[in-house]
Amino acid sequence: MSGINKVILVGHLGKDPEVRHLEGGVAVASFPLATSETFNKDGRKVEQTEWHNIVMWRGLADVAAKYLQKGKLVYIEGKLRTRSFEDKEGIKKYTTEVVAENFTMLGRKTDFETEAAPRTNGGRTNDTDGYRNDADDLPF
Amino acid sequence: MSGINKVILVGHLGKDPEVRHLEGGVAVASFPLATSETFNKDGRKVEQTEWHNIVMWRGLADVAAKYLQKGKLVYIEGKLRTRSFEDKEGIKKYTTEVVAENFTMLGRKTDFETEAAPRTNGGRTNDTDGYRNDADDLPF
Amino acid sequence: MSGINKVILVGHLGKDPEVRHLEGGVAVASFPLATSETFNKDGRKVEQTEWHNIVMWRGLADVAAKYLQKGKLVYIEGKLRTRSFEDKEGIKKYTTEVVAENFTMLGRKTDFETEAAPRTNGGRTNDTDGYRNDADDLPF
Amino acid sequence: MSGINKVILVGHLGKDPEVRHLEGGVAVASFPLATSETFNKDGRKVEQTEWHNIVMWRGLADVAAKYLQKGKLVYIEGKLRTRSFEDKEGIKKYTTEVVAENFTMLGRKTDFETEAAPRTNGGRTNDTDGYRNDADDLPF
DNA sequence: TTTT
DNA sequence: TTTT
C-alpha cells in the first residue's frame, strides 16, 4: 500500500548549491540546509541546529542553481531517502537526504535578486519540469 | 532565527516498538517504519519502499509500546535529527532518525485493539507529558 | 512575496465524489471529507468531527471519480481557497474549500478495488496534468 | 477513527492581532493572514492572494498579542474549524478558521523587535497552556 | 487587510 | 556550514 513520506523545512543554506550533470544531462543540485530551534534550558537560551542534506533534480536543480545561495532563507518540501555508498576506505555507509519536490524563497525581496537576473518575486518551483500551472484556465 | 523541521509519515511498522529506559527512568521507544511509493516505470508498476528510524520519548514511548505493533498503519509527525555514533569497529557513522512528536493510528478499528486493553479509537498522542522538555535529559 | 498555503487531511469521504464538466471539458470533482478527533472531556471520550469541502480538478478529478467512494479513507494534500457566491435568496456567502493537489488512498487493499478494475495498491495522484501524471495509465 | 486535520501557512499578517477575553479569562487572539502565490499567466506574472482567519487560544494568544504585528511574516501550524453564526440580519452563515497550534516568526531580526521588548530570536510557541509552554518566560 |  |  502507498504511504506518505513528506518533509517540510524552513531554514538557511549553509553553502551555495553544488550542481552536477549526470550522463544524459540530468542536473542534480545539492546543498546543506540548517534549521535552528531555540529553547530554554535552566533559564538560559540554547540554540540547537540541525543540518539537512538537500538534493534537487532536473528543472528544480536549475532553478536552485540560479536563485539559491548560501545564507538564503528557504521553505522546502520533499521526501526522505536513505541510500548507501562506500567511502574512500571501502566502508559501507548510509546517508539520509531530503529530495526536494518544490521550494519557495522566503525573506526580503533583495534576497531573491541576483546580479544577472533581478526578480520580483519568490516563486514556488516544482520538480515537474514545467509549471503545474493549474491557473491558466480556471474559472476563478 | 528559528526554522521549521517537520516530517509527516504514513506507513507500516516493520517491527514491534523496542523500548529502553534510560537512567532516570525516561522511556525511549524505537522502530522502523516503511513508506511505500508506487510508480510506473516503462509501463510496469514498481514499488519503492523507504525505511525510517522512528524514535519516541517519554509518554509517547509508553503509548507506542502499548498500542503500536508490527504491521500497523500509523500517521507520524516529528522532526529530523542526525546523530553520530561509533560502530563496533570504532568507525564513526551517522544515522538520521525521525523523532516523533505525535502519532495517530490509522486503519480498521480492530487494528487498535490489544488483548489487554481494547480501545475504541485511535487517538493522537503528543510528546508533552508535562513539558516539551525533550532536551533536558537527553543523551545527545 | 510568495507564501505557503498547505492543508494535509486524513479522513473519510462523506459521499461519493460529484463530478461536473465545465465548458471546455475541464472536470471538477467535489465531496465532503470528515476528519475526526477524539479527546477526553471529564474522563469521558468525546469525538468531534470536522467536515471539509474537497475540490479536485482535471486529471485528479477523473481519478477521484474512478476510485474514491463514500466511506473510503484518504490522505489529501491541497490548499485553502475561500470564494464567495450568492445563495438562492441572493445573499452573498463565503465558502472555504480545500483544493486538492494530490491524494493517496489509505486502508485495506480491498478498499482500493472496484468491480471493474481490481487494484493492488493505492497510488499517489497529482494535479499536474501532463507531468508527473501517475494518473494516465491507472489502475495504478 | 481518528483523522488528521492539519494546516501549514507562511504569510503576512493583514492586521495586528485582536485579543478578547472570554468569561473565565481565557484569551483569544485573531487576525487575518495573507498567503500569496505568484504564477505565470500568458507570460505575465500574476499574484493571487488568499486570506485566512487565524485564531489563537490561551497562552498562544498572549504571545501573539505580544509579538505579532501587521505585516510580519509568520509560519503557522494549526487545524481547520468551520463554525456557524448568525449575522446582524439573523442569517445563518459559516466561517472557516485556522485554529493555530503553534507559530514561528520568520524574517529579519528587526521584525521580531517591539519597542518595549527587543528580542533576539523568533521562537516556536505552542497552544498547550501549561505544558510545553515556552511562552511563560518570553522573550525566549 | 499583508507582502514582493 | 546557515541564521538570529
UniProtKB/TrEMBL annotation, chains A, B, C, D:
Keywords: DNA-binding
Membrane found in the keyword field: no
Annotated segments matching region Disordered: 110-140
Compositional bias annotation for Basic and acidic residues: 126-140
GO molecular function, one term: single-stranded DNA binding
Pfam families assigned: SSB (PF00436)
Gene Ontology cellular component annotations, sorted alphabetically: nucleoid
An example Gene Ontology biological process: DNA replication
Subunit structure: Homotetramer.
Protein name in the entry: Single-stranded DNA-binding protein
Gene source species: Mucilaginibacter conchicola
